[in-house]
Amino acid sequence: MAAANAYLLAFTPNSSPSTSYSRFPSLYSPGYPSKPLMQRRALSPSTFALKRRSETLDLIEEKNDAMLQEPSHTILYSFSPMTFLLLAALPGADTVTSLFSPFVELVKSFNLPDWLVHWGHPGNMAVVLFAMGGYGTYLGFRIRFSDNIEEKAMAKDLHPKLLGGMFFFFALGATGGVTSLLTSDKPIFESPHAVTGIIGLALLTIQTILPTLFEGNPGLRNAHGILGSGIMTLFLVHAAFGLQLGLSY
Asked: Taking the model in full, what pTM does it have?
């Protein structure tokens, strides 16, 4: 009997939980590290994707908020006359005066007659306006309405040359007008004469570009004629303002 009991004790497994669980841990034992397993189950691929998407949305919102907080800048790309009126009102006269000051001092050193300094620019520009501009405009109308082939051919050859020369001398004459005002110690860019001159030169630039587009857009010929007539009218007003300015001092 004693031998039987010893045999049973030898082959009966140890019921101590610490011994069995420490040597052979199972999924259901109290000592098994179940919390890391739950964490691994929670961090599945779908969970990672949702987390990354949430982080991306947060970054986008932060960037949008930063862009809204930054000051915005408006850049004007326009040929509207109002743009040039705005530019004429800006304090750019000081820069132009400083650039022209060496040449102005040189002109003053010549001791030219006052009448020549005062009326030299208006006289030259009047000749350019009425001789080159007036006859060039007439030739432009002859191109449109003349039935004489020889006259139309002559007008087509001379019209762009005359008005191109008018554009050149007007641009050159603008520097002469600024020099005349500075030599007389008068302000610049503050008169209607200066504003209409800037607008006229800008419109002449557009008018010069239009003929290069005639082949693909025949309708631009009408626009060219209407714009040219408007430019000549503007320069007549410009001349009247110039005469008024010359008589004011």
From this structure: 0.61
